[in-house]
Each structure stands twice: as C-alpha cells, then as structure tokens.
Amino acid sequence: MSTLNTENKIKITELIMVFIATLPMGIANIWITKSQNDERLSFERQNAQSILSIQNKELFIKSAEQGLNSQKLDIDFLRTSYEECQKDGELSIGKIKSYADAYYSSSEKKNIMIAKVQTNCSLKNNNQLVDNQDKQTYSIEHYRSLGFKYLQNKKFLEAAESFSQATQMTPVDASLWNQKAYAQFRAGNYTDAMNSISIALRIGSDNDKVRKYMAINAAKILCAKGDVNDGRNYIQQSINAIPDLMLMVKKDLELGSICKIDLSK
C-alpha cells in the first residue's frame, strides 16, 4: 500500500512538472495568437478606412464637385475677410473689396459676399453705412444652440439657417457643417444637404463622436435622395472603418426607417 501511494505521488509530481514546463509555452502561444489577431484587425480596419475614404470621394465630394468648388471659394473669402476685419475693423473694407474682385467675376456675387462681411463686422460699402449700433453680436455657440432648439421644435429651415450662420463664422468646423446638413436633410433639401455633408467629410474630424454622426447622416441623406443601396453600403463600410459605430447605428431608428435596415440583426 505504501508503495502504491509512493507511485501515485511520483505520477502527480511528474504531471505537475509537465504542466509547469509547458505553461510558459502555452502563455507564449496565447500572446502570439492575440498579437496576430490584433495585427489582422488593425490591417482590416485600415483597409476599411481606405475604402471609406474612396466612397467619400465617389459618393459625395465628386458628385457635388461644382457646388463644393463654389462653396469652398465662399469659405476662403469669408475666412480671409473676417481675419482682416478682426485686425483692422472698418479700415479693412478696401482690402475686402480687393479680395472680392479677385474671387468673383459677377458684380452681384461680390455685393452679396461683401454684405455678409459687413453685417458681421460693422463695415460700410461704397454708398451705404451699415448701422449695427442696435444689433447684438452673437457667438458661434449662440447659433449652434439656436439651431438645436429649432431642430427640437421641428423648424428645420430655421435650424439650417442658424447652423449656416455658424459655419460662416468658422468655416472649417466639420461638426457645424454636419449639423447644417442634417437640418437641410430634415427640411427635404437633399441637394443642399449633400453639399453640406460633402464639405463636412472633406474637412474631417478627429473627434470619434463627430465622425460617427457624419457617417450616419451621410447614409441618411443618400437613402433619402433615393440612393438606398449606396446608403446601406456606405453605413456598412463606415461600421467596418469606425470603432463602435454599430452601437449608435442600432439605436438610430430614423436611419433604419429611411434606409430600410433591420436594426435588430
């Protein structure tokens, strides 16, 4: 009996020794497998992002190229003019008129763009003094907040105008262009919405939440204007490219309805 117990102890000891000897190898295999999976997922994500970038160009930026070129010109003009206005105030009107001459060939377009700058900067044109003494100067956040209030009250045209005022003050904020696009989409102005979301996508954002909202709104606009297959494909590619977007997509009943997507899957 004593001999049997001794043999059992030896076997148990041998098994323990084998386990201890193979444990590091098992851990190493697990680490290698995890590392390989991480590399594969990273590659797939980068590939998906590249495809999404191509889709952005094909579905939005290229298709709205003429509109984008015109709006980009306006953005550049307004940005340059506001910078001059902030530096020199009323004294900058001469420079701003020179910019308008360089940017636009149409006299009507020049007058419209100069008037926009005058309204915000209290400038005067050739024959008329813009009296802003009784006008309050509003901030970007004021227009953003006002836009959201209009959205809540389903006043979509007013919301679009409020966000438009904000984009004029800061033309390189993708989130504002995205919000403007959504308001235009809800108002049924799909062409304008396409232009605005195209600008938002071209500007881009480092903020994950903004990128997710842009992807969802872009898909909605595509589907709303009749390109349902493009909208579905776009949101699927966005899900592949943007981490955790699926969680937002599943909660967006509006997207599911417009693009005819079963969000329960």
TrEMBL record:
The keyword Transmembrane helix applies. The keyword Glycosyltransferase does not apply. The chain crosses the membrane at residues 12-32. Keywords: Membrane, TPR repeat, Transmembrane, Transmembrane helix. TPR repeats lie at residues 140-173. This is Tetratricopeptide repeat protein. InterPro entries: TPR-like_helical_dom_sf (IPR011990), TPR_rpt (IPR019734). It comes from Mixta tenebrionis.
